[in-house]
Amino acid sequence: MNSLTIVGPDTPFAVLDHAKLLQNILRMRQHIDRLGVTLRPHIKTAKSVDVANCLFDDVPGPITVSTLAEADAFADAGYTDMIYAVGIAPHKLPHVLALRARGVDLAVLLDSQEQAEAVAQASCEARTRIPAFVEIDCDGHRGGVLVDDPALIDIGRILDSAAELRGVLTHAGESYFADTPEALAVAAENERAVAVTAANALQTMGLPCPVVSVGSTPTAYAAVDLTGVTEVRAGNYMFFDLVMAGVGVCDIDNLALSVVVTVIGHRESRGWIVTDGGWMATSSDRGTARQRVDQGYGMVTDLDGVPYTDLIMSHASQEHGILTIRPDSAAVLPSLPIGTRVRILPNHACATAAQYDKYHVIHLTSAIEDARPATIDAIWRRVNGW
Amino acid sequence: MNSLTIVGPDTPFAVLDHAKLLQNILRMRQHIDRLGVTLRPHIKTAKSVDVANCLFDDVPGPITVSTLAEADAFADAGYTDMIYAVGIAPHKLPHVLALRARGVDLAVLLDSQEQAEAVAQASCEARTRIPAFVEIDCDGHRGGVLVDDPALIDIGRILDSAAELRGVLTHAGESYFADTPEALAVAAENERAVAVTAANALQTMGLPCPVVSVGSTPTAYAAVDLTGVTEVRAGNYMFFDLVMAGVGVCDIDNLALSVVVTVIGHRESRGWIVTDGGWMATSSDRGTARQRVDQGYGMVTDLDGVPYTDLIMSHASQEHGILTIRPDSAAVLPSLPIGTRVRILPNHACATAAQYDKYHVIHLTSAIEDARPATIDAIWRRVNGW
Q1: Strand, helix or coil for residue B90
Q2: By CB neighbour count within 10 A (0-12 exposed, 13-18 middle, 19+ buried), where does B44 fall?
Q3: What is the mean pLDDT of chain B?
Q4: How near does any CA of chain A get to the CA of B231, in Å?
Q5: pLDDT (tens digit per residue) in A209-249
Q6: What is the phi/psi pair of residue A85, to 5°?
Q7: CA A310, CA A296: separation in Å to the nearest integer?
Q8: B321-325 vs B231-232, strand pairing mode
Q9: CATH number of A211's domain
Q10: Can you tell me where the transmembrane regions are (chains A, B) (predicted)?
Q11: Would you place residue A364 in the very low, low, confident or very high pLDDT band (cuts 50, 70, 90)?
Q12: Which residues of B touch A339 (CB under 8 A)?
């Protein structure tokens, strides 16, 4: 077994396993290529130009962003094809126009006539046509117009007349709560069918709909046929997390992101190991609490990434984590003396990563090949904020 | 009613009401002065030198820090009296020594003989005496030795022989789950009594215990007699939050921190208002879920801070919040057109603030006096990370 040597950073810090990252990226790329559509990775999880640069062979490809701060940073890095996939607030349109004036083909998202009118007006005033997607609600998760809502056509007409109707976009957010292959397959086919029906509705009325965009990590993997879809968005797949493992779209061994913490105490009478990583290090996200296996604030592994049997981070305060054996397990609390470093695998990579401004990148696979300890040899910055 | 004009920042952003901050700071200062002990504010909530500078009249006073990054930043700002109130990991001792070499009287915390030996060894090697507190467990919340554990004396002896036994420190973490004045009074008296008993146990054995440190915002306010205690630590009181209001130590109107978000959509059939502020803007902390009134991800107010009747942020994804009327309320969803800005009052100020690298500071009170709209006229940086 390789022994991970970590030079420099104090705990807690976020480690990104470069080899797992590349494997995860390749797996999705090959899957989407087989389905014959465009992959437009969502960079909301990684929020890192360095991670995104692993996604594309040579030239920057199409991406999805969750904030205009991401759009700015990726524009600086040469990315020119973006969807800002959060419903547009009208006051953000000058920022969108500024990015477009830089040569970035940034498209916006909306689900109301009010927003469409704002985009049309901003387009007219700027003597341009801002491209916009109509958000379609495929599963009641969040925003979007229903596919049979007459507002879909009304919005399409406003955009087509004074802005640019780029297409339709939907997100099967409820697929995160699926946990059987059958439920995931249903979610994926529903996401596709709703998006294609919406596109057809627009086209039947003589409106353009060049792009039909769907996506979530679970449905992307569950999809076997994407007829009528032109592109897939997904982002979590680069890192994966315990929620995705619970959904069944990855194994624990695929998780590329973890947090390194140090043991700072023991409460033997309670079966507790105390660490210097609390919710500030992991986030308060407890996504697996809704799943069949509640992983607490995260699973605990050694520095090589090997899980300790049934050891989870069960409690968190700001700068303290408490590690315990799962309820109902017969496993014995491992001996982890004060000063021992362990890794916490996160419930929700998007939330855990957001607690950091950088990743410490390890190249574990190459280290194994070279029979030398893995070391941190890169620090990759995140684009936080708005 | 004053109308808050916010110039500049895109939503979401964190607003700090300077007048409420000063009121909260003054209230705690006067309360602790009446009790006749030292106030050592915990800066883990605010993590801001600018906020801390509101705590002290002229010279920087004693503070409590939760990370060595905070210690570095506050040392840079002239603060020289600090307790790092997280159990010390031995690998952090060189950093502690470096701060002490800069003239910062930084004391550490520990609850095991292993840690005491590490502190003693580091002291010997550096030909100095690192001051350390023994952490006492007063309510089973987290770390600390029990007051009747012989380890207390053993740890004290190790520190006294080769480092510096500065005193005992306890934190009534369970007081956050109290919700009656009676329960809070019991928690406060227990915290005091346990700390004083521990100090007496050390002194009976001929060991020094110059400092007896207790603290949490709830117990600080519940305390009516602190005989034997020398100092109180508390941090949340500067901002307050919905959990503290639920505990009963503040009113909703005292909350100094909030998040400004923009309405980006409506789902009338579901009774939803959608905003551009998700858990990235508020954190996933749902501390009030355990209280009598579950505030969701936060209460919703207008920009002046006046709550909308029974409107809460009930759901969150990364960059989307959903506002709904509380279950069982007869209130009507307010009319908030797309583009409307509202404020979200947080469950847990420590966690919500941690989603930001800065505060936008408003001086609402002075604006009211001047009969002009309040504006943001300061940006105060936070010290995030470790």
Answers
A1: helix
A2: buried
A3: 94
A4: 22
A5: 999 999 999 999 999 999 999 999 999 999 999 999 999 99
A6: -95, 40
A7: 11
A8: unpaired
A9: 3.20.20.10
A10: none
A11: low
A12: 89-91, 118
Question: Cβ contacts of residue B129 below 8 Å, gap of 6+?
Answer: B123, B162, B163, B164
A179, pLDDT greater than 50: yes
Closest CA to B160 of B208, B112, B232: B208
Query: What CATH number did the domain enclosing A269 receive?
Result: 2.40.37.20
The owner of tokens 């799943």 is: A291
Q: Which of residues 324-353 of A touch B (CB under 8 A)?
A: 337-339, 350-351
Residue A82 forms part of a structural domain:
yes
CA distance A339 to A20: 27
Residues A271 and A340 in one domain: yes
Structure tokens at B125: 């090697």
Give the Cα-Cα-Cα angle A88, A355, A141 (nearest 5 degrees): 40
3-state SS, residue B193: helix
Assigned token pair, B160? 């006294």
**Residue B223 sits in the same domain as residue B262:** no
For the CA atoms of A99, A100, A104, A109, the dihedral, rounded to the nearest 10 degrees, stands at 90
Q: Please give the interface size between A and B, counted as residue pairs whose CB atoms are below 8 Å apart.
A: 142
- Provide the 8-state DSSP code for B350: H
Cross-chain Cβ contact B118/A338 below 8 Å: yes
What is the DSSP secondary structure assignment for residue B288, as one 8-state letter?
G
The Cβ of residue A161 has, within 10 Å, a number of other Cβ atoms equal to: 12
Secondary structure element (H or E) that encloses residue A58, with its range = none
Burial of B73 (0-12, 13-18, 19+ CB in 10 A): buried
- Say if residue A111's pLDDT is above 80: yes
Contact B93, B118 (CB under 8 A): yes
Q: Which amino acid is at B13?
A: F
Do B169 and B289 share a domain, yes or no?
no
In a domain, A160, yes or no: yes
Q: Does residue B21 form part of some domain?
A: no
Do the chains contact at B114 and A338, CB–CB below 8 Å? yes
Residue of higher predicted confidence among B79 and B370: B79
Which structure tokens are listed for B74? 């506050």
Query: Taking Cα atoms as reference points, which of A247, A134, A131, A122 lies closest to residue A188?
Result: A247
Residue A294 burial class via C-beta count within 10 angstroms: exposed 0-12, middle 13-18, buried 19 and up: middle
Instruction: Look at B86 and A264 and tell me if their CB atoms are within 8 Å.
Output: yes
B34: Cβ contacts below 8 Å, ≥ 6 apart: none
What pLDDT was estimated at residue A1?
33
**Assigned token pair, A158:** 């406003």
CB contact, 8 Å: A117 with chain B? no
Domain boundary residue, one of A175, A203, A234? A234
In degrees, to the nearest 5, what angle opens at C-alpha A14 toward C-alphas A8 and A18? 90
The alpha carbon of residue B141 and the mean position of all alpha carbons in its chain are separated, in whole angstroms, by: 16
Taking the C-alpha atoms of residue A233 and residue A173, their distance in angstroms, rounded to an integer, is: 12
In terms of DSSP bridges, do strands A358-362 and A13-17 run parallel, antiparallel, or are they unpaired?
A: parallel
Closest by CA to B116, choosing from B83, B80, B162, is B162
